[in-house]
Amino acid sequence: MEAFVTLVATDSYCPGALVLAHRLRDLNTTRPIVCLVTPEVSKNACLQLAKVCNVVHVNTLRSNDDANLQLLGRPELDITFTKLHAWRLTQYTKIVFLDADTLPLRNVDDLFDWPAFSAAPDAGWPDCFNSGVFVAEPSESVYSELVELASQRGSFDGGDQGLLNTYFSEWSTSPEHRLPFIYNTTPTAQYSYAPAHVQYRNSIAISHFIGQDKPWKWQMFSDGKVFPRGNAWPGLCELVQCWWDTWKKHYGEVRKSRKQFLYRSVSLLALVF
Ligand SMILES: O=c1ccn([C@@H]2O[C@H](COP(=O)(O)OP(=O)(O)O[C@H]3O[C@H](CO)[C@@H](O)[C@H](O)[C@H]3O)[C@@H](O)[C@H]2O)c(=O)[nH]1
Ligand SMILES: [Mn+2]
């Protein structure tokens, strides 16, 4: 059996996982969806998640690597080592891991045709893979080796991506394990090559909102259209709109804020749970 797997280590990423799971289902996946959940996640969030996926409780794995996380500018990503628990899901022969901030734009069951370990290049350093989308075969021994490597050498970015790139270092020289970029496009990357996003828009399989600006932090006008954040370019607004349309489809319209003009996403969890 094969499964999609995601991770919710804090309530703040729960909306992401809910939209991801609904989206996979709306796009008619034939595979079960597993959500790894840590003890930090509230009971209410777990209840909501359990309605759309199989919740698997795991303990939090932290990198405790403040220096490298500082370099990455993301101190909150110390908990991403928890992702390693995906290798312990040995009841599945193959898994496709998707970060909670990914949004499939079409059915992506074809990812299961790829060999383990497969991943797509990272936009910031294409000789490294981005660890938000990968194909893997669960294995207790790989899990143990990853944990061992983490304790011996740590991660060069303080998160799972640095560790996994060190462990699967042959990835960069094995083309058969290199997923096309359309499986993990990153429209929020600092250098995101906007013209290519426009040119290949219809080929994108998965959009991945890397960085701190997650779709659930955006606001919306009362007509349901997203309020462009910062210098967001039109293609990005369209993708965030797609995320919000999925949310609205399954959880209804978000209540009007006191200002009457904008729907506030910040109170989104409170509105649903
Ligand atoms: O407070 C948190 C932080 C992260 N997560 C989970 O961990 C994932 C990774 O965090 P995210 O904010 O998505 O990281 P990115 O901005 O995507 O940054 C990059 O760097 C991370 C650390 O190496 C990798 O985990 C990512 O896959 C990679 O894209 C999320 O999607 C969630 O599934 C939580 O549940 N709560
Ligand atoms: Mn991510």
Quick structural overview:
With 273 residues, the chain is of the alpha/beta class. The chain has helices at 14-26, 43-52, 66-72, 140-153, 160-167, 194-199, 234-251, 268-272, and strands spanning 2-8, 33-37, 54-57, 94-98, 102-104, 118-122, 125-136, 206-208, 219-221, 226-227, 262-263.
Layout of strands and helices, then pairs:
Elements (H helix, E strand, L loop, with lengths): L1 E7 L5 H13 L6 E5 L5 H10 L1 E4 L8 H7 L21 E5 L3 E3 L13 E5 L2 E12 L3 H14 L6 H8 L26 H6 L6 E3 L10 E3 L4 E2 L6 H18 L10 E2 L4 H5 L1
Parallel strand pairs: 1-2, 1-4, 2-3
Antiparallel strand pairs: 4-7, 5-8, 6-7, 9-10, 9-11
Helix pairs in contact: 1-2, 1-7
Bound molecules: uridine-5'-diphosphate-glucose and manganese (II) ion.
